[in-house]
Amino acid sequence: QCAERIPEAEAVLDMLEKCPEHQKKGGFPVIVFEGLDATGKTTVTQAVKDTLNGVLLRSPPPCISQWRTVFDDEPTSIKRAFYAAGNYILASEIAKASTQAPVIIDRYWHSTAAYTIATETSGKVQDLPPAQDEVYQWPEDLLKPDLVLLLTVDPEERVRRLQHRGLEKTKEEAELEANSLFRQRVEESYRRMVNPACQEVDASPSKEEVLKTVLQLIKKHCGF
């Protein structure tokens, strides 16, 4: 229905329809990095890609990320549908890339789910759906990664990094900064994800130390 009002929605749906169902992963590991803005995802994903001679992918993928600003201004349900569709379009890129090299991903399903759950819930962390709720489950029809690493830094350090970067804030980033309860709900939602769960990594130390920790976890969980 929204395709009549938003021309870009039709293009997204066309791409989604072209994606084969039940994507199969190749022989190389697929590693996802999650976390709030300014937790070091860009730096770490690039470093891991270079170290492992891998392929770096992002969600939403470039073929639709040009329309993010369009969908970010839409009602929550349409915006979330855009990001969810982006994950399935990305899955076809992951399937192809993982036959040739390790795949490093900057955000995937857990981001979409965590922000959706945190937005749909008001109040404190205690008001989130209970830990065993199905909202924290990975979708059965979406290609699953081998490892999900959640980068975290303490709130003050994260805000300091954001200010240092001096970038224009997204709506969600402004909300995270203004509303500590929202931030806590997002972070707790990440922690409750299962199948696969997030492995938490303290991203406060130096880039070299964080990279070392991350590579050890990849070796342990992916045997790579």
UniProtKB/TrEMBL annotation:
Residue ranges occupied by any Thymidylate kinase-like domain in the UniProt entry: 33-212
Name of the gene encoding the protein in the UniProt record: Cmpk2
Domain of life: Eukaryota
GO cellular component annotations of the record: mitochondrion
A molecular function GO annotation: nucleoside diphosphate kinase activity
HAMAP family attached to this UniProt entry: Thymidylate_kinase
Name of one Pfam family that matches: Thymidylate_kin
InterPro entries the UniProt entry points to: P-loop_NTPase, Thymidylate_kin-like_dom, Thymidylate_kinase, UMP-CMP_kinase_2
EC number(s) given by UniProt: 2.7.4.14, 2.7.4.9
Protein species of origin: Pomatorhinus ruficollis (streak-breasted scimitar babbler)
Protein family per UniProt: Belongs to the thymidylate kinase family.
Enzyme class, broadest EC rank: transferase
Compartment list: Mitochondrion
Entry protein name: UMP-CMP kinase 2, mitochondrial
Record keywords: ATP-binding, Coiled coil, Kinase, Mitochondrion, Nucleotide biosynthesis, Nucleotide-binding, Pyrimidine biosynthesis, Transferase, Transit peptide
